[in-house]
Amino acid sequence: MTLVVPGGSGTLRTRAAGPAHSAPVQRPTALPAWPLAGVLALYPLWWALGLGVLIFPLTAAPMLVLLLRRRAAGRPLLLPPGFAWWLLFLVAVVVSIAALGADPSGTVAETAGDRLLAVVYRLSLYASLTVLLVYAGNLTETELSRRRLVNLLGWLFVVTVAGGLLGIFAGRFEFTSPVEWLLPPDLRTKGFVQSLVHPYAAQIMDLVGGEKPRPAAPWGYTNTWGNNFCLLMGWLVVAAWATRRAGVKLVALLCLAVSVVPAVASLNRGLWIGIAVVVLYVAARYVVMGRLWVLGAVLLAAAGLVLALIATPLGDTVDARLDNGKSNGVRSFLIDRAVDGFAGSPVIGYGSTRNTIGGRNSITVGESSGCERCGNFTVGGNGQFWQLMYAHGAAGTIAYLAFFGYGLWRFRRDRTPVGVVGSAAIVSSFSAMFWYNSLATPLVFMFLAYALLWRNDLQANRPGGQSP
Where are the transmembrane segments (predicted)? Predict the structure, then answer.
């Protein structure tokens, strides 16, 4: 007589029946949805508490414990396709720490110890988000369905739009968070710490003549807000597409229409480019599939946007931003410094970013309380690509790009809405990496897009499986 029990690889194994007093076979431990769903659904709360991106390292610990418990119970631990490339990237990040004490030409001299805090912070985020990726991919449809995960990402786009409106109409809104209150006064006043624990609606900048608020809530920085806008907007469309409720579809359309206001008022040219990349990529995918109606939808949306720019002050805002490229000179200066630095340590980089001596016009110009953007710029702070190249050399850059590039190639035949939008998110991140950095929340949403593509592929290859 035999008993059939679940095998670790998803197959069925046959074992001889044991004595009547044998201990029963334990079922594999289920993965609860709350570590991931709770972070996403309640992110505005974490932001208000002062946890923000810190919530990801905090929840990575229980995620890791739960994954190990499931593995110990006999359930296989699945790893995403191309994961070896990502592990190689993590190795490159660790190895590059060996060059942390180097002072490339034109940068502020510091010891390795002075730079270690930023390195530990960055490495902890990379490790935490790796756990998040594996956890999201190992969740079953019963534990956290793909549709629910898409809904959560769509919800975060709504949060992004709401934060953008708050930044535009109440740009000086800020408050001291509970976590901030718990920190020593000399620590919580530091700029880096403030960016982590101090909630504020917008960054106030002078880009087009006079100080104007640029949306940041709840993502900390205007550039991060713009990056996340591009990574999340497609998921709202997928979530609305999948429901039969007309009210939800209408709310999604209204949200997309309203999002134009903070998107334009943010003065964020990278965001504008990113939106165009996403729309054109999705349109191209659907045209290749023979769904030519998408061309009409894109043209209709473009006509509506042009009309809105002509009929409202938003058009003047766009013209003013395009006529005032104040950041162009700084970005060119930092790109030159990154390329020069790469030439000095092409294989492993320097382990982290560096601050320049002075500014682009003179080494005597520096950051001060009256002019925080006058000098001491961060080499590698103007885009993920430049940071990878400068901080982790060719080894880290190639491994990072290869992981996401492999995902695009591996899942290229996924024609479901999830497959198209997930690929679009990764494509947009490739374009944005020349002006946006990915840590921390943009990389979260890149990983979740990857996890959805991966789970779609797993489900499609199961007997009777289908994608949403």
Answer: 46-68, 77-99, 119-137, 149-170, 225-243, 250-265, 271-288, 293-314, 389-409, 442-458
